[in-house]
Predict the structure.
Amino acid sequence: MKRTAKSKKPAKRRRHKPVVQCITLPPSLAPGAAVCGKDLKWTQIVIGPNGTLIEPPAFLSFCTGDFGVWLVTNASGKRLKLKLKDFKKATGHQAVAPFDFVDNNVDIPDDTTGIVVGQVVLAVPAKSEALKIKYTIEVRGPASIDYDPELEIQPGG
């Protein structure tokens, strides 16, 4: 270590935090092309002026253990907040907690992309049909708008 002339303590090195310049995700693999529970599924959402949904999220089909990524681009002209919430079975509307999210409540400045990441923790019994789940994408900012897409979780093996 380098020592300074005035002190016998080693000089501190400055550490630079890495800066993410670009995120490129591979396309989600077709159903059956990846080992169930070892895949990364993602979708792009674009929020436009007045909170309009320019590009809605794709329908995603998960297995327990898969990771889900929502890339949310803010093209609204103003800062916005986005939250994924109210996950319910499509039939019966029973509340479920299918994901363990890193953070499902993001603050996204204008002209940037926010990321919501979660791992599927809900297990669907092997001899069941895929579980369809409705959820809410809550957008707050230029307008207060909620979107209610669907996703599904495949039965385990």
DSSP finds no helices and eleven strands in the chain. Residues 40-153 form a domain with the Immunoglobulin-like fold (CATH 2.60.40.10). Residues 45 and 57 are 5 Å apart (CA to CA). The chain has one domain: 40-153.
